[in-house]
């Protein structure tokens, strides 16, 4: 049985089918971005000293280093580690409340983002495909909250018109 047939049998509305498909593609994109050679972002941002990865457990440490020592890093490293983390989680703030009716508060987006990004950070650390950086969690949280805020604003605007 095909994926779309299953969704039709369990009476999922057509617009939900679209967003479920987008959500699945988003998950695949995240996996490719963080765990394969194709998504080379994790390798661009891994600072190594004597082949020992530098994990960051101090909030805002990497972000502050990029801001105040911008001239010591190459542009792609700064971009991928800051704006990249914000942009890659922006869609989560929009897709999650559409797919799951129980996600309707900012705290719900905070929980789901920390859960997903925390899992990615732990998997990167354990698989040696990257390093653990708490700032990645913070920046991803910013991205998903911006997406959720815009989603909420669009709902309010639609209800007023």
UniProtKB/TrEMBL annotation:
Alphabetical UniProt keywords: Membrane, Transmembrane, Transmembrane helix
Pfam families the UniProt entry points to: VanZ (PF04892)
Entry superkingdom: Bacteria
Domain VanZ-like: 24-152
InterPro entries: Teicoplanin_resist-assoc, VanZ-like
Transmembrane parts of this sequence: 17-36, 79-100, 109-125, 137-156
Keyword tRNA-binding appears in the UniProt entry: no
Database matches in PANTHER family: INTEGRAL MEMBRANE PROTEIN, MEMBRANE PROTEIN-RELATED
Listed name of the protein: VanZ like family protein
């Amino acid at each position: 049985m095909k994926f779309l047939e299953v969704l039709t049998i369990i009476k999922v509305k057509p617009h939900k089918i679209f967003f479920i498909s987008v959500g699945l593609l988003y998950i695949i994109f995240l996996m490719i971005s963080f765990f394969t050679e194709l998504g080379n972002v994790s390798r661009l941002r891994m600072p190594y000293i004597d082949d020992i990865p530098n994990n960051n457990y101090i909030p805002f440490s990497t972000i502050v280093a990029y801001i105040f020592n911008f001239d010591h890093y190459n542009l792609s490293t700064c971009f991928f580690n800051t704006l990249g983390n914000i942009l890659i989680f922006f869609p989560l703030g929009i897709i999650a409340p559409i797919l799951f009716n129980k996600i309707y508060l900012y705290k719900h987006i905070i929980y789901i983002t920390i859960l997903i990004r925390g899992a990615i950070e732990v998997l990167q650390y354990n698989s040696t495909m990257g390093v653990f950086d708490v700032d990645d969690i913070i920046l991803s949280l910013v991205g998903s909250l911006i997406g959720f805020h815009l989603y909420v604003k669009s709902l309010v605007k639609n209800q007023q018109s």
